[in-house]
Write a structure and sequence with these properties.
This protein is an alpha/beta fold and about 500 residues long. It has 2 domains: about 30-265 and about 470-485, Aldehyde Dehydrogenase, Chain A, domain 1, CATH 3.40.605.10; about 270-460, Aldehyde Dehydrogenase, Chain A, domain 2 (3-Layer(aba) Sandwich), CATH 3.40.309.10. The chain is built from 15 helices and 24 strands. Helix 10 crosses helix 11 (about 315-325). The termini are far apart. It binds NADP nicotinamide-adenine-dinucleotide phosphate (NAP) and magnesium ion. NADP nicotinamide-adenine-dinucleotide phosphate binds next to helix 8 and helix 9.
Amino acid sequence: MATETTTNIQATGWEYSAAPERFPISIEETNKLFIDGKFISPKSRKWFATTNPATDEKLADIATAGAADVNAAVASAKKALPKWSKLAGSERAKYLYRIARRIQERAREFAVLETLDGGKPIKESRDVDIPLVAQHFFYCAGWADKLEYAFPGRNVQPIGVCAQIIPWNFPLMMAAWKLAPALACGNTCVLKPAETTSLTALRLAEVLQEVELPEGVVNIVTGAGDTGKYLAEHKAINKLAFTGSTHVGKMLMRNSAGTGKRLTLELGGKSANIIFADAAIDQAVEGIVSGIYFNQGHVCCAGSRLFVEEPILEEVIQKLTHRMKSLRVGDPMDKNTDVGAINSRSQLQTIEQYIKTGVAEGGQLHEANNQQLPSKGNWCNPCFFTDIQPSHTIAREEIFGPVLSVMTFRTPEEAISRANNTPYGLAAGVWTDKGSKVFEVAKRLEAGIIWCNSYNRFDAASPFGGFKESGFGREGGMQGLKPYVKLV
Ligand code: NAP
Ligand code: MG
């Protein structure tokens, strides 16, 4: 199917000409499972549709992997393990370098496909997601023959067959975060992408064929939660790596207890962005905007709770309102778009329910409702709430949408205790002109990632992961190798 898009964004204030991304890509009508190096039809004989959340148009059919298909994928990974794990690290590195280079060569195609299937703005998939995917493969390729330096004095062994289950917010990036370190360390993998965003993972399988990665080293099984369940509960897997909701993460932890399977969980968050009165306010407002409106707020580390030092509240609100209203919401394929489509109808309903709850509990809603949204697809105007107390539902629960709760503090002590008052512990942001304040506050925040005078910055060399109910284990950096090795 050839796909081309048009734009129908109308913003008040600035009138941009439409700037649609026109790179032509083709999508197979039916997309099979990737097992043992080949694309094969599912034994289940079941298929499901994936749609473009910005238009509600069906993009393709995708295979549903049933229990027998998952068995075949795990068996294939198990068969490939002895040879792959004994291959010299320098040889494994060559495959990873080839994958990274091929992703760079096909970057535009990957970016367009990611945006069509998931709804994120093309400028994000083009400038953030896909470059980071290549970077992760490059970075891990560099470690493949240097594992004894990452773990000095230890005998480093692969764990074995890794089951990897990923969500829909950064589909290909999550696949790279999981596959690259696992392969660098000599493991074989079965990856399950999220139901709504499987297309880029399947296209990555084409790249794996192109670089002649040995058959069975990576297998990709598509499907919904049941496919994930078959995979997670499979007796022959040695490790389970999961990124997704805290609810499913807890279930997987209960189920894997006592089985001897290694487990890492990257789960939800309710991260705090703390703005001190001495911060550069314009920059901080940019940080607030990127913290919560980037990727429609579909970011596990989204800065969804804003704590502003009281004297600057009015100024921050005024500047934030102005900036929020200048964000362009609409066709994700338009290169000017800042906020794209919500990934699925059910996620949109969840977000809308939270907004209603916020109003019902007494919060004051400030919305960027100055733009005409497309008539089809899943859309949510960026918004924030004031008059919010820490006990309000929207200040406690993860929304996973462009909805910000604004609260205040009077002392650094109060900022720290309010920020830490959550069952989650994924990320935080601290904005201040004073270096000493940054260190003092950051030291006491219970969060895996802390940004200072910035937000939502990622790098393959930097570890990512949470505390408390945000999970355990790290992805990225040298620390990201550890979940994929046995140290004997
Ligand atoms: P989810 O329902 O937990 O889904 C995540 C993945 O698990 C999907 O592939 C899903 O398949 C699969 N799955 C669902 N039920 C399963 C089960 N019983 N057993 C095994 N696998 C199962 O989460 P989501 O709603 O898609 O994703 C959003 C959540 O992910 C948010 O809470 C967010 O905070 C979190 N997240 C965390 C990070 C991080 O790094 N900490 C990163 C991104 C997202 P289907 O999609 O096909 O149902
Ligand atoms: Mg889709």
